[in-house]
Write the structure tokens for this entry.
Amino acid sequence: MEITERNLRALVAATDDEHRAGMGALPQQIAELHHGEGRKIVGHSRRQFMQRLGLTGLAVTIGSQLIPMRSLMPTSFAADGDAGLAAFAESVELAAVEAYKAAAGSGLVTTKGVLDAATTFAGHHTEHAAAFGAAAGSAATKKPNPKLLSAVAGQLKGAKDEAAVLKIAFDLEGAAAATYLFALGALTSKGALQLTASILPVEAQHAVVLGQVLGLPATAYVPSFETVTAAVNPSDYPI
Amino acid sequence: MNDDNMYDEIRRQARDTQAMHNEAMPQLRDAMTQLFEQEGRTADEKSVAVGAMSPGALFKVGGITLAGAALLAACGSDSKDNASPSTNGATTTTVATSGTGGTSAMSSDVIILRTASSIEELAIAAYQIAIDSGLVKTAAIGDAAKLFQSQHREHSALFQSETKRAGGTPFDKPNPAVLAALKPTIDALKDEMGIVKLAFDLETAAAQTYQSNVGVVIDPKLNAALMSVGGVEARHAAILAGVLGNAAVAKAFQGADQAVKAGTGV
């Protein structure tokens, strides 16, 4: 199934309207994270964390990069528990925001519908970053993940056309969704879990739109299950 | 970027299907009859399927607000809501239930998982209705229906497996309460776009249902399991939304207002 430029523009416009409408609930969600269940963020040991993840020997990819997952989390992340993970997620979201800005400014994206989509999706990522930042509390850095941003910037530098830029965005969205699935195996507070579960599907839907625009086969953007295969490893991408 | 305007084609073909409506509807009704009169369906299930409605037990699928007295018994909502599920495995919760399990008490995780598999089975059945109806004329939509249906089979298998692992009896039939509530909508289906809308509503409800149970399940491993499926349902919904001409990504955060409450119909 494919999507036309005109349809994409319509979808993006409608998305933006709904997106703005949805903003009303955000302060309440953030407040809940600060003062409700999300406040009850507790640390846990690295060992417990690794047991929860249950991930060893996996490899992840962002675009063409293959990232080994030999080690999972730096001790600092484990010590911070949910707050550390939320701070990491914030950094991933902010890197995505910067990536979309760089993509839009690359001069390679000339289709208006695609530019509109990039703007809309960047707006979503900005909101996600704010929510994760609120969940992270004092652990939040309010900065894009430096290594992830550098990796994506390098890929964008090598992109030759609009499709190549879209493919990078597609991979980044898939990586974000995988990262949050990964996080769901480690987070402990109800607030942080529910926040992450509310964001994962949105990243997956971004990937669907981009996959359709790219004309990829449906199975490329509609897998049978979400997996952690493409997750961004906090150990390799420290904040 | 493909310049073909798929949606104009979809709508043109949808208009063509109007003329075939009268011919196709009997097939649809037959399929519905099969669903409702499956052999082996218990008295409780039949009761749920045709149960009287109560304003005290509301849930929604898409724009349809549903209610059912049977849901009160099936949900055991009070006891569940009053429990304090935690993700550290310290709390166990039991809920009074009715349905194929035939048990009076099950863990809340089992109920969540049985509800999940019942929704997956409902989606499988709904896509089969779509495939068999003769109303789907666009090849791409037919292909998507088959792909999505096959993925729902995998999802149901996962949830049934997890139900067993949690010590429960898997629920392997379409959710009777939701199916009963959707029957008027299904009976009124006239064209391809109506089917797409129904599928969109079901996918959205499924995605939101699994999300709503994250952080609620007692076994923390289930959080990732639920969203490994929930993310895919959201992808299905995005594609179907696009076919309907709606926003593929409706909001920055997925809501839970269309979620089916755990225990409904199971």
User: Anything to note?
Assistant: The first strand of chain B starts at residue 58 and ends at 61. Strands of chain B lie at 58-61, 64-67, 94-95, 106-107. Confidence is low (pLDDT under 50) at residues 1-59, 66-104 of chain B.
